[in-house]
Amino acid sequence: MPKHLASNIAAALKGRISSSEWMALGRLPSERDLAEEFGVARNTIRRAVDILIAGGVVMRRVGRGTFLSAADASSLAGTIARMEGASPADIMEIRQLLEPAAAGFAATHASENELNAVHEAHRIAIDARDLATFEHWDAEFHHRIFACSRNDFLREVHHLVRIFRNRSPWFDMKRRSFTEERRQRYCHEHEAILMALRQRDSDRAKEAMLVHLRAVATNLLGR
Q1: If you average pLDDT over residues 139-166, what whole number do you get?
Q2: DSSP string spanning 93-148?
Q3: Residues 6+ apart with CB under 8 A from 185
Q4: 72 alpha-carbon distance from chain centroid
Q5: Dihedral angle at the C-alpha atoms of 70, 72, 78, 83, nearest 10 degrees?
Q6: What's the pLDDT score for residue 189?
Q7: What is the pTM of this model?
């Protein structure tokens, strides 16, 4: 295809990006969809996108698509889209910052019913005998602690982290590192967290959570 066709398509895409057409998504449609829309081959769309990349308008992430560079601080969707590239190591570091704080808040703010809900998740995780069941109730145990914190923003940030935890790279790492011995250790560490919550000991809850997350990081990441 003539190069000027790719240039024309790049200009058209840039105009639509400037008009915020895809700002809510934070990314361009797939090359296949754009090729059908413009009635050209996908390699022509690829050339057009390369022009936009060279101009700093978009950025390509292998296997995930083409994201808008303009979807920065002014776009929540753009920020979340960029967070999709976070590594398991990044996520574990953030968890070690957020979750001890949530446990500390939960120790002082949680109602008895909320603590009973945390205990329920812990009990079901203890009885789990396969990774999928344990992983679900392990995640639920942590999520219910965030709910106990009485901080809506903190809870929703954790919900976002939980979404990333459910992606395949994270679950694949959990599957490779999962053993019955480690499951029992995690349950024991959960018990220590729950006991600190029941005793309304904020400092102990923070420390117990940090000890647990460091163990998880070591098993997942080998460090």
Answers
A1: 90
A2: HHHHHHHHHHHHHHHHH--HHHHHHHHHHHHHHHH--SHHHHHHHHHHHHHHHHHH
A3: 215
A4: 18
A5: 130
A6: 98
A7: 0.68
